[in-house]
Amino acid sequence: MSTYKIKMSATRMSMYLQCKWKYWCNYTLHLPRKPNISFKLGTAIHESLKVAGLIWKKKENFTKYDIQKIKEAYRKEAAKEGIEDMSVYNEGMLMLTSKIKDFESGKIIAVEDRFEVTTDEGIMLIGAIDKAVELADDSLLIVDYKTSKFNYTAQEMKNDIQLSIYDIAASIKFPGYKRIILCLDYLRSGPAFTYRSYRERKNFTQYMLAVYNEMLSLEEKDATATINEFCNWCDFKDECPEYRKAAVADEKLEKKNPENCTDDELAGEYIKTKNRKRILDNYERKLKGYILGKIKADEEDLEGAGKTIYVRQNPSTTYDPKTVHSVVPLNEFLRMVSVSKKKADEYLEGMSAIDRSKIMETAEKSYTNPFLAIRSIRK
To answer: Which among 156, 185, 217 is the end of a domain?
Structure first.
């Protein structure tokens, strides 16, 4: 068994696979990372749910005092993290309150459990499991809270590095359980579940060992930047030569004729162009924000490059639904309004099954226009 030289985490492994230059900046050069509002919100909610988990582990219920204590923990962490956008703060409180109402159905055995375990191959794994719940004598549920607005597909959950590392860590830390179920608890939409078979766990461990060995041999000359879909959220993009090049090199892009491309070239060209478009969009937003601030501060339009850039606001008009309803005949009023699915679903939760089924019978499902999606090919 080899002696570990790197403490492997899900973040570390994912970052290395995404972009070796980003990995080098973070883990070798230790460059400072930028504050992120999503990270701040996630930290505040995780800390308050840690308080909730410890209370539930002890009493398996919440009193009114407990709920206030949990909410106060969120307020404290939100202030500590510096969340200044009240819409973000209120959204976090709403997610927390919703989770408290439907908190747990099993026996909590660990909360915010920081692990440091070593595999048979000599790799030290580090991280923190948000919650471990005993579902039965031989079944363990590993929960990771998510505040993101987008949910993974079932296939993405199967391939997720963080869940695979949690699975290995849990199998070492809690060896008495035959089944380990993995859960991404989306606080906006609800939990999603997956698992790893013994073979899948073994395959991932072997792959992780290969990545680990590559990390050990990484030198500065090999730490090249990779343009990908995560570039806009990279803490080091402003110093990245490839990002700067992509952000200003639209006119220099090599444009291939799709008809002359092989399938491999066609897919690669589409992905490369899509990623560069994201970078350009992000660069435009950055310029736009700065120019808006400059015009407001200087109190004058920006003139340059033979153009005038100025601030324009389009007016919009809204009507009071109650007033319109009192004046317009019912049939005409129904043609003017639409039902919010989210509000309707919330209301339906409190209705009887019969009344709910009457409404669901009239529901119509529609689809968006076709669009291209991308997923990795499993080998």
So the answer is: 217
> What residues contact residue 228 under an 8 Å CB cut-off, 6+ apart?
18, 19, 275
Whether residues 275 and 247 fall in one domain: yes
DSSP codes, 235-277: TTGGG-HHHHHHHH-GGG-----GGG--HHHHHHHHHHHHHHH
Residue in the block written with tokens 């009240």 = 86
When divided into structural domains, the chain yields a total of 3
Contact 201, 167 (CB under 8 A): yes
Query: Which domain range does residue 147 map to?
Result: 7-217
147 and 274 inside one domain: no
Cα 246 to Cα 240: distance, rounded to the nearest angstrom? 10
Last residue of a domain, one of 194, 217, 240: 217
- Rounded to whole angstroms, the Cα distance separating 320 from 328 reads 12
* DSSP H or E run through 146: strand 139-146
Grouped pLDDT means (10 residues each) for the chain, 379 residues: 73 94 92 84 94 92 94 96 92 93 85 94 94 90 91 90 97 94 92 94 96 94 85 83 71 65 85 83 84 83 86 81 89 85 79 78 73 71
Residues 282 and 154 occupy one common structural domain = no
One domain for residues 201 and 139: yes
